[in-house]
Amino acid sequence: MAYVATRGGERAIEQAERLFRQDLGQIDLDRVQSIRRSLPYLVDRVMGEASLYDEDIAALALAQTGGELSEAVLVLRAWRTTQPRIAIAEPLLQEQLLTQRRISAAFKDIPGGQILGPTLDYSHRVLATDVLEGRPYDPPAVEAAETPAPARQPSLADWQRVQGLVAPAVDNSVPLDEIPDLTREPLLFPASRAHRLQGLARAETGGVLALGYAAMRGYGNAHPTVNELRLAEAEIVVRHPSGTAFSAGRIRVSQAEVTSKEKGGYLELGFAATFGWNEVKVIAAATLDLNSAEAPVGSAVHEEFYLYHTESVEASGFCIHFKLPHYVTFQSILDAMRDAKAKKAAMSASNVTTAPQEEPAL
Amino acid sequence: MFNESGSSPASGRFGHGEALDTLARSRPEGLKALAESVLEDFGDLRVIANRTGLVMVPMRDTVENVDFHLGEVLVSEAHIADEAGNVGYGMITGRDLERAMAMAVVDLAFSSGRSTAAITTFLETEAAALAERDAERMRGVEATRVEMETF
After folding, report:
1. Using CB atoms, which residue from A145, A180, A243 is nearest to B142?
2. d(C-alpha A259, C-alpha A106), whole Å
3. What is the Cα B18 distance to its own chain's centre?
4. Residues of A in contact with B51 (CB under 8 A)
5. What is the ipTM of this complex?
6. Which chain B residue lies closest to A149 (C-alpha atoms)?
7. Cβ–Cβ below 8 Å for B95 and A242
8. What is the torsional sign of CA A317, A318, A323, A329?
9. Any alpha helices (H) in A27-117, and if so which ranges?
């Protein structure tokens, strides 16, 4: 075993961090609040992947890391471990979500109707370059309806069950403190459904999209159609010491169901949800869930493959560890390569001095 | 009473749960000012907890009805008691211990029958403001409703 010593490393490391932070400049409350106000979807993405919901803390992580998402998620996950867990909230139920966007691509006449909500889906993707010329872009205000939309929308899956399109519901509820928790127990395979959905909820958006997209393009066994997509706010319902249930506030959540083909007389459904409004992630994640049942081991849609490979902190950590010194192990590769070259050269030299061998008879 | 579980009215139309809902979402400045004013009526208060922490948030899967953890929400919590043993409690999403403590003080004041009129007025004002904010947002959402026809 050999070692490589570094001289001046401590000072260089300190200066490297200083250089990074110097480039970012001063971080103050104004900058954090500006990030929170102006980049809500980025803040949502970081909160979802960090599995920690707090817009100020997430905006601070983005400010402190210059928007390097892997670092921001890592900082948040690390900070999360410093906080005690005080309580477990009541489960969020779909029909209680304060729904602001809800569409179905499979059924046009869904109970409660289709509400586009805040979206750029149908917009021209035009960059407002006038802003760079000093002319601010002021978006036109919404022409609000006279009556508000209902805050709560019924469950499409429940309606489909009544119609006999989806398998009957089974009561799978468990006490709150018995819900499997990836943050306190290892991920083992085959994973429980609770682990799978928790893993997808905190998975890296780009990774989930890449693998979900592979399934959509034919590398899975099920092509998704959006059964229902929701962007909503959810109440965090906790308990007063007297036992009274109350909402401590609201958070933004996304959820998606995707459907494919009939199986056993029912439509198959895949499901996913996450913190924040991130519909690409939940559609892709629900597609992976949909494909899981019949996925060949080792394929991109097999749960072991996608849960391991979309865990952002482990994945980015493994990736960046390759920047650390590997001089000694790499030296053995060089030694082997040089040895092979030397043998090849020796072989060539001996071939020059001896008569070429005849080709063996066929 | 305000500190009892169930929906017995704390004051007027506000049951305990609804009052707590409103306090947790009320505007911070007004809540803190109200807590400052009602605090003058108290003797020594015991602080049982005043901290930030996490609330685990489960969600129910709509396909197989399985509860899973969506993640954790940062909250601020305050738990206090007066000399008579009445309890005040506040929990709000976010990192504002002053706001959580203000909620706990107002909860305690109501449970022990102090400053009832001022607190009721505050709850009514805040509940109306919150309802109006929600209604305004949902009027905007309603404007995005689409009807689809097949030809």
Report:
1. A145
2. 8
3. 8
4. 84, 86
5. 0.91
6. B142
7. no
8. positive
9. 29-38, 40-50, 55-64, 69-80
Q: For the segment A125-165, what is each residue's pLDDT rounded down to a tens digit?
A: 999 999 999 999 999 999 999 999 999 999 999 999 999 99
- Hey, how many other C-beta atoms are within 10 angstroms of the C-beta on B119? 24
What does the block give as tokens for A261? 């083909």
Instruction: Tell me the one-letter amino acid at A21.
Output: R
Q: How buried is residue B38: exposed, middle or buried, by Cβ count under 10 Å (0-12/13-18/19+)?
A: buried
Window 131-150 of B, Cβ < 8 Å to A:
134-148, 150
Would you list the DSSP string of A59-79?
HHHHHHTTT-HHHHHHHHHHH
Q: Do A179 and B69 touch (CB under 8 A)?
A: yes
A56-92 per-residue burial string, b: 16 or more CB within 10 A, e: under 16: bbbbbbbbbbeeebbbbbbbbbebbeebeebbbbbbb
The residue of chain B nearest to residue A101, with distances taken between CA atoms, is B141
At residue B10, the 3 state secondary structure works out as: strand
CB contact under 8 A, A115 and B66: no
| Main-chain dihedrals φ then ψ at residue B70, nearest 5 degrees | -80, -30
For residue A352, what pLDDT is reported? Answer: 66
The answer to whether the pTM exceeds 0.95 is no
